[in-house]
Amino acid sequence: MAEAEQAKAKPVPEKYTLPLTQQEWNAVFSDLLQKPQQLFLIAKFRQFAAQRRAAYFRRQDKVAATPATSISYTLDWNQEKMDQFVEGQVSRLILPLISIDPIATQMDSVRLLSVGPRNEMELLLLIGLGLTPDNIKAIDLISNSPLVDVGDMHAIPFPDDSFDALTCGWTLPYSRDHARAVGEMIRVTRPGGLIALGLTRIPPGHADFETAVKEGTHPYQSVEELLRLFGEHVDEVPFRHEPRDRSKKGALMTIVRIRKASR
After folding, report:
1. Most buried by CB count within 10 Å: which residue of 20, 141, 154, 250?
2. Are 255 and 239 in contact (CB under 8 A)?
3. 3-state secondary structure the chain
4. Using CB atoms within 10 A of its CB, is residue 200 exposed (0-12), middle (13-18) or buried (19+)?
5. Digit-coded pLDDT (tens) for 68-80
6. Pairing of strands 250-258, 189-201
């Protein structure tokens, strides 16, 4: 027990010391009081906030049945993860997104749709990074939050050109009709808007690869494969990432600026 306490109290090396005065600390705390959303940049705080809000609102909403366009275990798996308040890897997709114009230069006016966030944690991160809460919308097949509408990515319940940006982090693999899902994402994103798409690359031979194929979804192996879903709507690709070790599971991520024909 004593050893454990000593480990917790391990002194910080001098080179990392923060010699702030009490007045400076007071200024920091004052800023936090004025802008408490900055606390959402801390993962554990996002988790606590999402959990407490879910308990407060007592909302448990979902589609009546798994859509035919989704793989069989979509609802059960995501219900479990929602209740565990698992955030996943979506921050790896959001952080590069917010560095790209016009997101970076017009943060407070950007309209963004999150497709498949499971719970509020992704939305709280976006708020912590500077997006205006009322400008963030979200849809999922399940919801424990008043900020997440129940909706299907294959039939997104918003008009054409509604959003400046859209995030779809680790959601597309639950679809059996990727072209339709991405088509809907393109439809609701304005010309010049950005779609951030991320998923796990599963190498051939892995057990999950075979499961994906049996479920009728496609285990993408490269960003180029993902980009084919966008067809003629790719204006530019300001961000792409593929795993370096292709023998293991890893993240495939891309951000696409959308081109649309003039009407």
Report:
1. 141
2. yes
3. CHHHHHHHCCCCCHHHCCCCCHHHHHHHHHHHHHCHHHHHHCHHHHHHHHHHHHHHHCCCEECCCCCCCECCCHHHHHHHHHHHCCCCCCHHHHHHHCCCCCCCCCHHHCCEEEECCCCCHHHHHHHHCCCCHHHEEEEECEECCCCCEECECCECCCCCCCEEEEEEECCHHHECCHHHHHHHHHHHEEEEEEEEEEEEECCCCCHHHHHHHHHCCCCCCCHHHHHHCCHHHEEEEEEEECCCCCCCCEEEEEEEEECCCCC
4. middle
5. 999 999 999 999 9
6. antiparallel
pLDDT of the residue at 12: 81
For residues 106 and 130, the answer to whether their CB atoms sit within 8 Å is: no
> Would the pTM count as exceeding 0.70?
yes
For the cut 70, the answer to whether the pLDDT of residue 55 exceeds it is yes
Residue ranges of domains in the chain, CATH in brackets = 32-258 (3.40.50.150)
